[in-house]
Each structure stands twice: as C-alpha cells, then as structure tokens.
Amino acid sequence: MQTQLKKAGESMDRRLEHMRTEFSEIRAGRANPAVLDKVKVDYYGAPTPVNQLAAVSVTEARTLTIQPWDASVLRQIEKAIQTSDIGINPQNDGKIIRLIFPPLTEDRRKEIVKDVQKIAEETKIQIRNVRRELIDKLKAMKKDGELTEDDLKQGEKKAQDLTDKYVKEVESVSAVKQKEILEM
C-alpha cells in the first residue's frame, strides 16, 4: 500500500511541476527568459535551444537581452524568434537581440487569468484521476487478499489527504500567478 501511495504522490508531483512549467511560459508583460524555452534555432542542422547558443538575461522589467556567444548565429536566433509563437518582434543591433515586452491591456490580462484558471483546473482533474486510479488499485489489492478492509479504508483516507494537499498547492500556485498577472 505504501508503494502505491508513494507512486501516486510522485505522479501528482509531476502534474504540479508540469503546471508550474506552463505558468512560467505564459507571457505576462514582464520579461521572462522561460518564454524562449520552446524556441529552437537551426544551428548546423540541429535544432538547438536559444539558451545553449547565447546568454539570455533580463536587463529591465520588460526587456530581455540575448547575446550570442558566436556572432554568426545572430540572424538564425532572430529568425527563430520571429517564426515562433511568442508574439514579440526581436530588435537586432548587430551584436545583441532585444525583446521588448509590451504592457498588457486589461482585457488581455483577464484572458490570461482565464487561461491560468483553466490550466489549474485541468491539473486538479489530473490529480483527482491519480487518486481514483490509486483507490482502484487498493480495491484490487483488497480483492486479491493483500489488504484488509481496515487497510483499504486507511489507504482511501491517505489517498484523499494526498489529493487535498496537492489540490491546495495547485490553488496556491495559481493564485500567485493570477495576482502577478493582474498587478502589472
């Protein structure tokens, strides 16, 4: 039973980390190097992440600076950013690329908050699905004679406690992200 609870906890933790990753990729009007995580540059025929080709830094609250280690890659990085879906036009001065994040309108902020809420709700559903699968496994173990009725009840309670803990964490992380978006 403990093994099943541990596996379920790890699975719930992965769901939470995935949500955090998705939140970090949401462009909230503030410069965040994570928006470039999905941008791949064709570097000698291999798709390479921007952060492996250049120093990416936040110089001001809404400005991201990309300084390639090899100056010949500057045009490819610029092209990769333009063709990506981050929605920001890079400014190339021949040595570095600047991404200036425009301030968000109130309507756009509300849209982003709705997206954050949707992602959080999907994560909660995934966590509850892990709980359901865990309880099904525990019931199968009881049916096979590996658990007693009391062990099953105790396991179900622990599964619910674990689920409640992760759902509360999802709500907390979501609330922080929503506050961050609405404050700007």
Automatic annotation (TrEMBL):
It comes from the Bacteria. The keyword Zinc-finger does not apply. The keyword NADP does not apply. Residues 20-182 form the Ribosome recycling factor domain. Keywords: Cytoplasm, Protein biosynthesis. Its main location: cytoplasm. Belongs to the RRF family. This is Ribosome-recycling factor. The lineage of its organism: Bacteria, Bacillati, Bacillota, Clostridia, Eubacteriales. The gene is frr.
